[in-house]
Write a structure and sequence with these properties.
The complex is a heterodimer. Chain A is built from 6 helices and 2 strands, in the order H-H-H-H-E-E-H-H. Chain A is mainly α. Chain A has a single domain, classed as Orthogonal Bundle (Cytochrome Bc1 Complex, Chain D, domain 2), CATH 1.10.760. Chain A has a two-stranded antiparallel sheet with strand order 1-2. In chain A, strand 1 and strand 2 form a beta hairpin. In chain A, helix 2 crosses helix 6. By secondary structure, chain B is α/β, with parallel strands linked by helices. In chain B, strands 4-5-6-7-9-8 form a 6-stranded mixed β-sheet, with no helix packed on it. Chain B has a 5-stranded mixed β-sheet with strand order 3-2-1-10-11. Chain B has one domain: Purple Acid Phosphatase, chain A, domain 2, CATH 3.60.21. The longest helix of chain B is centred in the N-terminal third of the chain and has 14 residues. Chain B has 10 helices and 11 strands. In chain B, helix 8 runs parallel beside helix 9. Chain B starts with a helix and ends in a 22-residue tail after the last helix. Classes of the chains: A mainly alpha, B alpha/beta. At the A-B interface, helix 2, helix 4 and helix 6 of A face loops of B.
Chain lengths: 152, 379
Amino acid sequence: MRKILRWRGGLLLLAAFLFVFASRMDHVQAHKEKHTPEQLKAFQDVFMEQVRIGDLLFHGDGDTEKKFDVNLSKTGMACAMCHPFASDTHPHEFPKFQEQIQEFATLRDMINWCIENPNEGERIDVNGPAMKALEAYHYWSNKGSVLDPGKH
Amino acid sequence: MIDLERERRETQRELNKPDERPDPSLKITRRTFLHRSLVAGAVTGAATYGWFPLINTLNLAFGAQAPFSFAWISDTHLYPKTVNTRFVEKATRAVKEVQAMKPAADFLMFGGDLAQLADPVELRLGNDILKEITIKKHFIPGEHDWYLDMGKTWVSLFGNSPWTFEHKGVQFIGLDTVSRAPDYWSATKMSPKERMGHMATLDGSVAGPWAGVGSDQLQWLSKTLSPLSKDKPIVIFSHNPLYEYYPPWNFWVRDWRQVHEILKPYANVTNIHGHTHQVLYNEIGTMRSIGMLATSWPWPYAPQGVPQLTKPMIRANPGDYFDGVGWAKLNVTAAPKVEHEYMMWRKDVYAEAQVDSGTGDNDNQILRPRVADQMWPYK
């Protein structure tokens, strides 16, 4: 009798587990649903707005700097003056050992180095909105480049 | 892109036929020297600035009646002193070095972009700095000198272009390659500052293909050259290169083919230009072209179009603002030859490997024009 009760208890436990698992599956699979064109456009719009902001910051737009409360340069130099089309920035080669910093560095580390050194500006929050926008602009400008982390 | 590439290859084939080269006697030799000041023991200067400029010498058959030298300074990009004294320091240093040349240069050629935003304060500051040079000075404008007041201050301080003069058997010509931009400002009612801002953005697309010689100046050039013998040594100064290097950054003049047609009968033409802020050398048709350094900052090599004849310079250290910049000295001798010397304020000038010059970056990077120009109100 005890054995039968134990078996019934075990089966109930298994049924409860399967029920919970099946209900969670709905959530797990949610992202696999097809994206609508509207959704894709919305995602792209979010990205391109960040690229646009990054472009303006990279080209020394004073209003955008004010809006994000950053001071990227005190010399009149903008990032784009040494990096037209974001050339010679190589976002696709980070992380890597960066000679100027003498450390293993990310793209964000290097952006801050350039702000503080050649531009004599003020370091920005590595996870802040200005940094994210600058990063978006770097990657967008170099889209299609071969990913080659660590390359010097 | 494929069409553009094909067109460039066809152009290259057309212009570089076996008989379409500079005079074969004009051999280029490259020699490297330590700068005189180091040989003379000016160790203090070297220690202070890391100043070990190497000298690139191009021997060109020239036929000058007597040896002489001239100096080139360009692309100082001065801001008002309240904004930036860095560029003032470098322009001042170049000026002092030109003034100290012994024997003195016969003249200074200033190749444009004296100012950054054509502000009269910047142009007057530049004029004051250049006053220290007492030899004869000649000027051509850059786009950064022009588009705030459409050249009014520039012309009042430095006069009009084009111009020409003969000096010791060599015909010198100065062209204006910046003032004939198509009107990109009226339709959107830009303020003069906005107009200048777009012009000052090298990688912007709003100002479009602004660099050009223009039909009126082409006619003037043709007329000026017509009485000259075909082997007359001719040096043409221009702010932009007189060939197609990289149009998106206006590293060209849009009517370079017409320029070439005019120059074609002349066997001994050298174009010396600024704007590109880097070591460049090219031969196209019968013309050779030499790119000069800026005193302000160096540009990276463009993602495509770097002339194969260029021995590229080493990528500059962004932490050292005296790196990758300088001025130039050109000696015209009775040999006859012209020695061209990059007076770069650094230890090494030339890269031995692509990785050191940045020209190797093109192997694995694809670049796109800026996005902000592709949105309203510009598109």
